Amino acid sequence: MSEAKDAKKRKEPFPGAYYLAGAITIGLMLLFLVLGASLPPGVAGFLVAFVLGLTVSPKYVPFFLFAAIFSALMGFLGREPQVAWGGVGLLLSQLVVARFVKA
Fold first, then answer.
1. Which residues fall within 8 angstroms of residue 54, CB to CB, at 6 or more apart?
2. pLDDT tens digits, 71-85
């Protein structure tokens, strides 16, 4: 029975891989927090939305494209540069994902 549990249990690629991945994730989150706070609103919105948009699964691209267009329109109409340029960044990242990533 313990062999069946061991077979079902996920194995790390190397010891401590999940801890390293968690540390990298937290580090990147802190980097985006610092960049978002120190850059002008439009640049910060574009950068954060573009990079995070690259992590989207290709099967969700149509939904994120809709959200990007909506965000860009509402941002430009409401004169909110972070939202507007974030929508543009998200739109571009979804085009990259749709073009270069195969599901």
1. 93, 96, 97
2. 999 999 999 999 999
Q: Look at residues 48, 89, 39 and name the one whose alpha carbon lies nearest to residue 68.
A: 89
C-alpha closest to that of 71 among 55, 52, 58, 99: 52
Q: What is the CA radius of gyration of the chain?
A: 18
pTM as predicted:
0.74
User: What is the Cα–Cα distance from 57 to 96, expressed in whole angstroms?
Assistant: 12
Spatial neighbors of 92 by CB under 8 A, at least 6 apart, are 50, 53
φ/ψ region of 36 (left if φ > 0, alpha if ψ in -120 to 50, else beta) reads alpha
For the chain, the domains span 40-100
